[in-house]
Structure formats: structure tokens, C-alpha cells
Design brief:
- There is one protein chain.
- The chain is α/β, with parallel strands linked by helices and about 375 residues long.
- The protein contains 13 helices and 12 strands.
- The protein has helices spanning about 50-55, 60-70, 105-120, 135-145, 185-190, 195-200, 205-215, 230-235, 270-275, 300-315, 320, 340-345, 350-365; strands at about 5-10, 20-25, 40, 70-75, 125-130, 150-155, 175-180, 225-230, 255-260, 285-290, 330, 335.
- An 8-stranded mixed beta sheet has the order 1-2-4-3-5-6-9-10, sandwiched between helices. Strands 7-8 form a two-stranded antiparallel ribbon. Strands 11-12 form a two-stranded antiparallel sheet.
- The radius of gyration is 19 Å and the shape is globular.
- The termini are close together.
- Residues about 320-370 have low confidence and may be disordered.
Length: about 375
């Protein structure tokens, strides 16, 4: 197998004294990459980039798998996460400062990373992949900067909820949250039947993940790390208040939406409501993965995410569709740009499984699994 080059970069943000950690991976035998092969990964609200995208389990980390497929892969930690600078408000007691690292700040940090990569690689565009809160950050950035983005992939992105979300514990919002790494295992697998837990999260994977995330915070103590709380304030002001942080209709690049069957943080109904809002994307695809949770990117079935992303990014249609709007039922290969109203109306406890199977089959072909 080809060797992978790894670089840990620290780039300036738009704020004096704040640097951003940017991890970079590529195959050593590849030097030049186009916009469709250059990928920037954005993490979620609590877990730093390395604990989602660079945990060495099974055949290798998520980043390594993408790199082996021939992508030039970057993963960003916005301020307050991983190897990036913590704002001053995170250095004292959580009660001593207002919520740190609001979403608008993360969008700016993402912009700093995009501009750095484009300048270093002499490119005009790249591909974005965002998970959970990272979907909000990448979605908002793309909506305002379509010209810099080749394609957008959203994995279990935040969307308007029914007023309740697992991310918000209630009560006062301080500067940051104290995240108990070992206790998270119960949250991770909640809703997964006991006989499926070891299949979803293979033996040793949680321990590998815990080791990486504990090392991400220099002030980790007794298994507790810090996570900025600005996202909780934004959840209350936007998603739980019935307001979107960005307008999906403003996105005019191809979109891939990925969601897993047992995700309790982002529900199927939220994705049903979100998907048709990408109506101005040249084409859009929704992949629903069976037997996965909100953390599917770190589970056995993550291979399906990697296959789906690879297939999506391999579609060479951006220059054809740029500046045009896809029409109802327009096809590009096996992609269908529709969100049937009968699928929306069919969502219920009794019919969800059946509809998922029919709809996922409509959107994606059956692909033979390969080792990554």
C-alpha cells in the first residue's frame, strides 16, 4: 500500500493570537490535485477533527482511507478544539465567560482554512465535508461562497428541530462544557440493541477513539475535556427556535447528504425537511445508511460513507452544471434530483423503515463493498 504523508499545520486565523490546527494527508506518490480531489473536513460541536477523521482503526483512519483513494485531504480544528488556540474565555472557570466559539466564528475559521489551501495549491475551488455542527459551518460558508466550493458533503447535519435536541442539556450556558469521554459511550450507543452494539462499534474502537480525544485537550483531567459552548447558544437561538442558521436555497453546488438509521441527534424527519431545500443545487443525493448512529463515521459501517463520498466526488459534472438549476427529475448517472412528496407524507413509526429502503434505493445504486 502506498505511503501516506502527514503534516500538522498551524495557520493564522482572522484574529490576532489565534492559530488554527490543520491536519493534511496525501499519498506520497501524488503531488498535484484538482478541485474535485482536494477535500477539507470540518468536525462537529464537541469532538475535535482528529477524533472523528483520524482514529487508526480497522484498515486505517477516515483521512487515510480518503488519501488512499487519491484525495488531498485536510481536516480543520476551529479555535477552541484540538490543536487550535483556545480563546481566553476557555482558560478560566466555565462560569467566568460567555459562551465561546459561536457558529459565525467557526465559519470565519473555516474561511481562513479554505483560503490557505486554495492559495497553497493554486486552486480556485475545493470540496467540503462537514459532520453535524460541521454541516452548519460548511453549509453556511458554501451558501456565501459558492464560487470557492466544488462540491459539498453533509454528514448528519444540524437542522431545525422540534424544540428539543440531545446536544442542549438545558440550564445556563457557560463558556465551555465539560465533556466526560468514558460516559459518552452510553450516549453513543443509546437506542442500539444490545446484540448489535459490538457490530456497530467493534471491540477496541472506542478505546482507540478515547485515546485520541483525551490527547486533544492539554488541560484534560480525569477523563474530562473542554468543549466550547457557543454552539449551544446557537442551537437555542436558531435550530430549536424554528430558525435556520443559513438558507440551503443559497447553495448552488452539488450536495451529498448522508444520514444513518439510528441517529438520535439528527432525526430522519429533519433530513426529510432539509433535503428539498437544496433545490438550487445542480444535483443532490441523499444516502441513508442502515445500522448506524450519529457517530457512524467512527463505526463499522463507515465504509459506506467512504464509498458514497468517493462516488459523489468522482462525478465530473460541476463545470457543466455551474450556474444552472437542476430541474425536477433531472438525472446525472444514477442521481435523481427529487424529494417525492409521497415520501415526506409517509414518514411515520410504522412506515419509516419501508420508505427508507425505497428512497435510498432510488437515490443510490447497490455497490459491492471493497476494503478501504
Amino acid at each position: 500500500m502506498t505511503d501516506i504523508l502527514t503534516e500538522n499545520l498551524h495557520i493564522p486565523s482572522d484574529t490576532a493570537g489565534i492559530s488554527l490546527h490543520l491536519r493534511h494527508k496525501r499519498r506520497t506518490d501524488l503531488q498535484v490535485f484538482g478541485p474535485d480531489r482536494t477535500v477539507l473536513l470540518m468536525h462537529g460541536a464537541t469532538l475535535p477533527a482528529e477524533s472523528l477523521f483520524d482514529v487508526p482503526v480497522d484498515d486505517g483512519s477516515f483521512m487515510n482511507s480518503l488519501a488512499h483513494q487519491g484525495f488531498d485531504v485536510y481536516a480543520l480544528n476551529v479555535r477552541g478544539f484540538g490543536g487550535s488556540t483556545r480563546p481566553a474565555g476557555m482558560e478560566g472557570a466555565p462560569e467566568d465567560a460567555p459562551p465561546q466559539v459561536r457558529t459565525e466564528t467557526a465559519v470565519r475559521d473555516l474561511g481562513s482554512a479554505v483560503d490557505h489551501i486554495l492559495a497553497e495549491r493554486a486552486l480556485s475551488r475545493l470540496c467540503l465535508i462537514g459532520m453535524s455542527w460541521g454541516g452548519t459551518v460548511t453549509g453556511a460558508y458554501t451558501a456565501a461562497n459558492n464560487g470557492k466550493i466544488e462540491k459539498l458533503t453533509l454528514i448528519a447535519p444540524q437542522w431545525i428541530n422540534n424544540g428539543v435536541t440531545r446536544l442542549d442539556p438545558g440550564g445556563p450556558i457557560h463558556a465551555y462544557r465539560r465533556f466526560d469521554v468514558q460516559a459518552f459511550r452510553k450516549h453513543w450507543l443509546e437506542g442500539v440493541s444490545e446484540d448489535k452494539c459490538s457490530e456497530v462499534l467493534p471491540s477496541g474502537w472506542f478505546e482507540q477513539w478515547a485515546q485520541v480525544i483525551l490527547a486533544s485537550d492539554p488541560k484534560e483531567h480525569n477523563g474530562i475535556i473542554r468543549a466550547p459552548a457557543g454552539v449551544i447558544q446557537d442551537v437555542r437561538e436558531f435550530w430549536s427556535a424554528g430558525r435556520s442558521f443559513y438558507e440551503p436555497e443559497d447553495i448552488t453546488v452539488p450536495v451529498l447528504l448522508i444520514h444513518a438509521e439510528w441517529d438520535r441527534d439528527v432525526t430522519l424527519e429533519q433530513m426529510v425537511n432539509l433535503f428539498p431545500r437544496f433545490r438550487n443545487a445542480p444535483f443532490r443525493r441523499w444516502v441513508e445508511i442502515g445500522e448506524g448512529t450519529h457517530m457512524v463515521i467512527m463505526e463499522r459501517n463507515r465504509w459506506q460513507i467512504l464509498e458514497s463520498i468517493g462516488a459523489f466526488l468522482d462525478i465530473r459534472t460541476h463545470s457543466i452544471f455551474r450556474g444552472t438549476k437542476a430541474t425536477h427529475g433531472e438525472r446525472e448517472g444514477h442521481v435523481i434530483d427529487v424529494c417525492p412528496e409521497d415520501f415526506r407524507s409517509a414518514i411515520s413509526e410504522e412506515s419509516t423503515s419501508l420508505c427508507l429502503g425505497l428512497y435510498a434505493a432510488t437515490l443510490s445504486p447497490v455497490r459491492k463493498r471493497r476494503r478501504l
